[in-house]
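Tutorial, part two.
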Amino acid sequence: MRGIDAAEVYEYLDLLAGQVQATESELRESRAENDRLRTELQRVQAALDEYEQVGDRVNEQVVQLFSQAQLVAEEMVEDVSRDARDRIGQARAHERKVVEEAMDTAGQQVRSYAQTAQAQMKSIMDSFATEVDRLGSTHPATESGSAATHQIDPLFDDLSDWQVRARNGSGPESPGSD
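Running the prediction step on this input gives:
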């Protein structure tokens, strides 16, 4: 018989059955692995969604914090500007006060110096007027022996107007004149 050897066929069928069982076993393992991976994928997607939601909340909070920080910074700049303006105003007021005090002190010193100079000038003028009067009252004796006549001296006789003003204290440099 030249036909099919039954033992070889059964052996071949056993081999095929083993391969089918191994393939089914691998298929079950692959399906189990797929199920496990799907579950893991769902867990990771859920975590990613949660992170995205948290990220969105964090972004919103960051935006709010930046907005608040900007408002605080603007308020601080405004406060500093206001403080700077106040300090500048105080410094200017102090400057005016110092300048006024310096001007008063300088004015007092100038007035004091002017009064001293006027007093010295008045003393010199009085002394000069006394000397002029003394010189004017001493007349040289005339040849005829009569009373001395007053000689006209253009330097001394024209001084009577300024002598009067100097003695009265109403001259151009006297304390009461401006």
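DSSP finds three helices and no strands in the chain. In part three we will examine how such features are distributed along the chain.
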